[in-house]
Design a protein that fits this description.
The chain is α+β, with helices and mostly antiparallel strands. The protein has helices at 2-20, 25-31, 37-54, 72-90, 94-104, 136-147, 178-188, 221-230, 254-257, 260-270, 287-299, 328-335, and strands at 151-154, 167-174, 199-201, 212-216, 231-237, 242-248, 271-274, 277-281, 305-311, 317-323. Helices cover 41% and strands 16% of the residues. The strands form three sheets. A four-stranded antiparallel beta sheet has the order 1-2-4-3. The chain has a four-stranded antiparallel beta sheet with strand order 7-8-10-9. Helix 1 (2-20) runs antiparallel to helix 3 (37-54), helix 1 (2-20) runs parallel beside helix 4 and helix 1 (2-20) crosses helix 5.
Length: 350
């Protein structure tokens, strides 16, 4: 029973890391209100059950009298699990733990757990499908694109307009970034995309000049999980209808998510050169979110960053981030290895 407690407790911690990407309780408590409620419930039960078994609480006390006679195999198994966990963490392979976790825990978004009358309902077979997490080769660039013009689109909705667990990643770029669009489709997101080439808009058959290109990924449960982290659900109810609107937000753990690869794709996607500075278009985010991004760029990447006020043509107040020319060399050393040649003009290198 004691070893069972070890196992249950370990699975609970693996689950925490799988959802939040950290075991820091301050971060976990800040993100918990937006997390999958069913997953949080399961993890809480695992942690409580493991603690009760470890502390020999009735009826999980049967191990205590024979505590010095525990099965040797289980002792070795517990040591092996602990060693494997530490090894993965030290080598930066936390995604392996996340993979093990996701193979066993299905994706059920919190806004899918109630029916039209607000009552809890049972998950569907589609919702119970296990989630295979995105590889770092896909996730790291995707974080940058989501900070830019990339988006996650709901593929299917229920009768209330709420998302079912199948979401596409959507990428729209201007004609000037056509080569970057094809680079993303062919080299970065090929594993999650179909063979349908990026689509020009307007359709050339109309005779109008093409102004942008667009492509989407396949619909994946793992992208639905990202959607729940990157979008806030605004729900308004009237006598006649229920309106659902999703607004893209900056996750509170963006410091852990954003890597130099993500920063490179953020700039290639939605940045531009202004003098010797590099400006990131962040008008779609609130001032608090822009300030959070500023802190991440300053403390994680040691860049000098300022916030610029900008009003849109409609008079809406927005904010942009400007990476100072004083940080130019530092910025180039971080992101240039991930830039494609045709986009290096955004760094002033071509």
């Amino acid at each position: 029973m004691n070893r069972t407690g070890d196992m249950i407790l370990s699975i609970g911690f693996f689950g925490l890391f799988g959802i939040f990407g950290t075991l820091n309780y301050e971060t976990i408590f800040s993100l918990a209100p937006n997390a999958n409620k069913l997953a949080i419930t399961i993890i809480s039960l695992l942690l409580i059950g493991g603690s009760l078994a470890k502390s020999a609480q009735i009826p999980l006390h049967s191990w205590l009298p024979g505590s010095m006679e525990a099965c040797l195999f289980l002792k070795y198994l517990s040591v092996f699990i602990l060693f494997t966990y530490i090894l993965f963490m030290e080598e930066g392979k936390g995604e392996v733990i996340n993979f093990i976790y996701c193979l066993n825990l299905p994706l059920i978004s919190e806004y899918n757990l109630r029916d039209a009358k607000g009552r809890f309902r049972s998950p569907t077979k589609e919702e119970l499908k296990p989630v295979i997490p995105l590889s770092p080769d896909v996730l790291n660039p995707l974080i940058g694109n989501l900070l830019g013009d990339g988006s996650l689109l709901i593929n299917k909705k229920d009768s209330e307009g709420l998302p079912k667990p199948m979401v596409n990643a959507n990428f729209v770029m201007t004609l000037k970034n056509k080569e970057y669009v094809y680079h993303l489709w062919q080299n970065i997101y090929a594993s999650i995309c179909t063979k349908t080439v990026p689509t020009p808009w307007p359709n050339p058959k109309t005779g109008l000049p093409v102004s942008q290109y667009n492509f989407k990924s396949r619909a994946l449960p793992s992208l639905t999980l990202l959607h729940s982290q990157w979008y806030e659900c605004n729900r308004t109810e009237t006598k006649d209808e229920v309106k659902i609107k999703f607004i893209k937000i900056v996750p509170l753990n963006i410091e852990e998510l954003l890597t130099p690869i993500g920063l490179a794709h953020w700039i290639m996607d939605d940045g531009f050169k202004s003098g010797n500075a590099v400006v990131l278009c962040t008008e779609s985010f609130t001032l608090d979110e822009v300030e959070l991004l500023k802190k991440v760029l300053e403390f994680k990447f040691e860049l000098k960053v300022s916030i610029q006020n900008r009003k849109t043509s409609g008079g809406i107040q927005g904010y942009r981030l400007s990476i100072s020319s004083y940080s130019r060399d530092k910025l180039i050393s971080l992101v240039e290895p991930y830039f494609i040649p045709s986009i290096k003009y955004k760094l002033g290198l071509s």
